[in-house]
Amino acid sequence: MADLILTPNLDRADDVYADLLAAHEGLDKKESDAFNARLLLILANHIGDRDVLRQALAAATLKQED
Amino acid sequence: MNKIFEVPLYAYERSPDQDAPSPVRHKVVVIGAGPVGLAAAIDLAQQGVEVVVLDDNDKVSFGSRAVCYAKRPLEILDRLGCGEPMVEKGVKWNLGKVFFDDRKVFEFDLLPEEGHARPAFINLQQYYFEEYLVQRVREMQDAGAPIEIRGRNKVSAIGTHDTHVALEIDTPEGSYNIEADWLIACDGAGSPARSMLGLDFQGRVFEDNFLIADVVMEADFPTERWFWFDPPFNKGQSALLHKQPDNVWRIDLQLGWDIDKEKEKRPENVIPRLKQMLGDDVEFELEWVSIYTFQCRRMESFRHGRVLFAGDAAHQVSPFGARGANSGLQDTDNLGWKLKLVIDGKAPETLLDSYDVERIHGADENILNSTRSTDFITPKSDMSRILRDAVLDLAEVHEFARPLVNSGRLSVPCTYDGSPLNSADAMGGPARTRPGSPCPDAPLGDGFLLEKLGGKFILLTIDAEAPDLIEEDGIEVERLALSIKDDPTMALKARYLGDCESGVYLIRPDQHVAARRPSYDENLFRHAIRRATGKE
Q1: What CATH number labels B431-532?
Q2: Kind and range of the H or E element at B443?
Q3: What is the DSSP letter of B456?
């Protein structure tokens, strides 16, 4: 089973973060929510591995695993 | 309104049972002369089991109701001798289009696989379906089959005993009592039989109303399934358009939860909605209007001693995916041969517990699929709507999102994985014919494979040797000897051998695979026969 990467994995993290912010510029709340949803689905498809996604879903809850 | 609704199809007639000094005992009594009850009765009578069908009405069902029939149920109907008129009359379709707002976001083709006698789907009004089943009953009666339908016979009390079931029946001429060795309750989602026995029916209620309108129109819409999410003519809701025979079109409009049902059903409210959808210049006539809500639920157990539940009485799903009547017919297909063996003393009564196991497996699969479709079609939270709309927007542009669009996952036959009747797969052939699977059809010269299967146990050999007849503890198994050369299209090889050189399949009377091996082995197949009949 592939493991979800939870250690730093982005080259030039600040640039990536800036890209995320820039994508939402000029969008209202509704448009931003829709954008995020589309982005989520595109990334999920790219990952293409339900196990990794389930690990990501668990990590996003911020709860520590027992 | 079509006159088929008005004419009694099985008018009340006084039965000699009503004048008998003590309750007459029948082999099997079926409650409900809908698609499932009639199919159950035909299946049993075809095997020579005496059966009486009781229905509180005397006509076909009112309105088109269940309209989509999938390939597997059509194959079951072929075995029951009434597939042909259904397919002849039914509308075949393959193309579906999905719209979001005012845009077509994509279309799909069911792309039916070649080499099957029956199409992937037909649309047919339930009243025709029931009419053809009753015609089949009449045909069987003329040939002396032990089958009877009693109209306006309403079951008012059920008493369960170790040896039989006692029934009290109300008729226009008063009530009478009969007994049955076995009772099959096919009396629908609101099953009075289930209530009389005080049995549970647990599941999830969906807070939504749908308006179904059947309209008759000469329209040049193609024979396709059109599904709209959030269309301009039904903002925030969904809509479906589907063709039935005789220029009848099924229109399904989601209405939401807080509505006045009686008001919404009135023609003066329905017609403007439909005009908005179809365009002002389309002439149409309303045939039937109904508002429904639905639940996804099932009984905890489909067998209660000598009472067996089938169809909507046992399990209920949302209509998305056409899994109601289709799964009910698979129930009867599963039950018929088992009950016959138990009645004949050729299998232990516990064989009937496998009906429970296998069909609960089927019901859970249907409930899961139809619940997911419903969650997609009618999002229950802001975020589920945002995600749903994101899928639809992406589907228009990117192929990857199209499989996520869920306007109903259409009924496919159930494979009984993990059934106690299966023997372990000793062949490693194609996954679609693993033990538990319904046999896929394949062309054989002028005919098809499935015509040769069903109604009894068969040992299918493909380029393999085996005895022509095996008898194991009262169960006779006939050999059907085939070669891959019998099908030049190679579908038989692809579906039953894959990379193997030869194969031997033990096939149940309901055309499901019980066991398979690359070659015949007497000892192992005798075990498989015992296992498939609940003896190990």
Answers
A1: 3.40.30.120
A2: strand B443-444
A3: S
